[in-house]
Design brief:
- By secondary structure, the protein is an alpha/beta fold.
- It folds into 3 domains: 220 residues, NAD(P)-binding Rossmann-like Domain (Rossmann fold); 42 residues, Ubiquitin activating enzymes (Uba3). Chain: B, domain 2 (Arc Repressor Mutant, subunit A); 90 residues, Structural Genomics Hypothetical 15.5 Kd Protein In mrcA-pckA Intergenic Region, Chain A (Roll).
- Helices cover 33% and strands 18% of the residues.
- The protein is built from 10 helices and 14 strands.
- The strands form 3 sheets. The chain has a 7-stranded mixed beta sheet, with helices on both faces. Strands 10-14-13-11-12 form a 5-stranded mixed beta sheet. The protein has a two-stranded antiparallel ribbon with strand order 4-5.
- β1, α3 and β2 form a beta-alpha-beta unit.
- The longest helix has 35 residues.
- Bound molecules: zinc ion.
- The site of zinc ion (ZN) has 7 residues, from loops.
- InterPro entries: E2-binding (IPR014929), ThiF/MoeB/HesA (IPR045886), ThiF_NAD_FAD-bd (IPR000594), Ub_act_enz_dom_a_sf (IPR023318), Ubiquitin-activating_enz (IPR035985), UBQ-activ_enz_E1_Cys_AS (IPR033127).
- Catalytic subunit of the dimeric E1 enzyme, which activates NEDD8.
- One of its GO terms (cellular component) is cytoplasm.
């Protein structure tokens, strides 16, 4: 289909994009060849999956739609709430821009879909979902005689924001550092909502809670009858800054998507940090692959324990170790040719049946040196294999 003849486009609609695609420049990729064909690829062929349609995701959708991408699919687990302005924006702006944009209410899994996406963009606030997606893309890689088939690589552009801080990164599975390679950068999540409210209130709800729980009892303004003014102050100070973080990170991610899809410029290598906590600070560094990354290294993971260690200790290691950070690991072992579930938390009846194993030692469970343990967890679509190394 001729792009200019498309009824959705008016004359010169994509001139801003053509400037990047149809002429050389001092910063273009060394192999870039200006072409009038490139725009057609962006408009008609390139399929992008955006995961997350919250504050960051909606900014991403807007930027991508305005950059010429039309095949944008959105996955979001949340439903649209009347108070959620971000998602309402989708209906006001997103749909007219991009007729093929799917409503975030439609939730589907990559595995069930026949779609082959060219690029995945994450605008998530969940590390678990990110890790799962990362693992998914690694599982889709194909090898021939041990050599990676480059056409099986689906780039992952990952954006993350937390209040006044953000990051954008480009991940090429099995080529650059993956999410799990740098897991130590994410501190294990702290389950003290009060802390978030007191130190980093970033949502209107946090701000209101901040005032209600902390500021109000302390100040007792207006004789303790109304808190509207104080609340407004906090909201006015914090919300614009958080919105800016989302806008900047979304812009960085969309730029990377454009670079990746058009091959016009060298992609980000590979981690951008952005911080507006105190002034503005940003830099880029190359996150390195971790040799024994549990997601992308294909190296069996060692578990070192004395035979007297209890299964509970192994479980704690899997959840607390900074480079594993599993959530509810299920451990199975093949013993005498049979699969045996040592512990499984997510199904109540099995949890009850396997719970006594937690107090047993590895010796009592007849686990010997070199025993393979298969661990399944919500942080990965694939089972992670560990090798037990008994220490004496
Ligand atoms: Zn990795």
């Amino acid at each position: 289909m001729a792009v200019d003849g498309d009824s959705r486009d008016w004359d010169g609609r994509w001139n801003h994009v053509k400037k990047f695609l149809e002429r050389p420049g001092p910063f273009t990729h060394p192999d870039f060849e200006p072409s009038i064909e490139s725009l057609g690829f962006l408009l008609e062929t390139c399929k992008i999956l955006v995961i997350g349609a919250g504050g960051l995701g909606c900014e991403l959708l807007q930027n991508l739609a305005l950059s010429g991408f039309r095949h944008i699919h959105v996955v979001d687990m949340d439903t649209i709430d009347i108070s959620n302005l971000n998602r309402q924006f989708l209906f006001r702006f997103g749909l007219p821009f991009s007729p093929l944009l799917l409503c975030p209410l439609i939730f589907y899994f990559m595995m069930d879909s026949n779609l082959k996406f060219h690029i995945i963009v994450c605008g998530l606030d969940s590390i678990i979902a990110r890790r799962w997606m990362n693992g998914m893309l690694i599982s889709l890689l194909s090898y021939e005689d041990g050599v990676l088939d480059p056409s099986s690589i689906i780039p992952l552009i990952d954006g993350g924001t937390e209040g006044f801080k953000g990051n954008a990164r480009v991940i090429l599975p099995d080529m650059t550092a993956c999410i799990d390679c740098t897991l130590e950068l994410y501190p294990p999540q702290i389950h003290f909502p009060m802390c978030t409210i007191a130190s980093m209130p970033r949502l209107p709800e946090h701000c209101v809670e901040y005032v209600r729980m902390l500021q109000w009892p302390k100040d007792e303004p207006f004789g303790g009858t109304t808190m509207n003014n104080t609340t407004l102050c906090v909201v006015k100070r914090i919300i614009p800054a958080v919105a800016s973080t989302n806008a900047v990170i979304a812009a960085a991610c969309s730029t990377e998507v454009f670079k990746m899809a058009s091959s016009t410029y060298i992609p980000l290598n590979n981690y951008l940090v952005f911080n507006i906590v105190d002034g503005l600070y940003t830099y880029t560094f190359e996150a390195e692959r971790k040799e024994n990354c549990s997601a992308c290294s294909q190296v069996p993971q060692d578990l070192q324990f004395p035979p007297s260690a209890k299964l509970q200790e192994v479980l704690e290691y899997l959840t607390e170790n900074a480079s594993l950070q599993m959530k509810s690991p299920a451990i199975t072992a093949t013993l005498e040719g049979k699969n045996k579930t040592l512990y499984l938390q997510t199904i109540a009846s099995i949890e009850e049946r396997t719970r006594p194993n937690l107090c047993k030692t590895l010796k009592e469970l007849v686990l010997s040196d070199g025993q393979e343990l298969a661990v399944a967890d919500v942080t990965t679509p694939q089972t992670v294999l560990f090798k037990l190394k008994l220490t004496f």
